[in-house]
Write a structure and sequence with these properties.
36% of the residues lie in helices and 38% in strands. With 53 residues, the chain is an alpha+beta fold. The chain has a three-stranded antiparallel sheet with strand order 2-1-3, with helices on one face. The longest helix is centred in the middle third of the chain and has 19 residues. The protein starts with a strand and ends with a strand.
């Protein structure tokens, strides 16, 4: 499973788990979420993906 950490100033603020497993759906979902997170935390936010088994 792929999860995404929202990192602000080197500290993990949130972890997002997409509900779907198809890459096209995850990509569209994360584009939407990246806009939401930038509005919520500002432009200094980084989104890092990782695998969870």
């Amino acid at each position: 499973m792929i999860v995404y950490d929202i990192v602000l100033n080197g500290e993990i603020k949130e972890t997002i788990k997409p509900h779907k497993n198809r890459l096209k759906e995850i990509y569209a979902y994360m584009l939407e979420q990246s806009k939401v997170m930038k509005a919520k935390y500002g432009e200094n936010v980084k989104i890092k993906g990782r695998m969870v088994y």
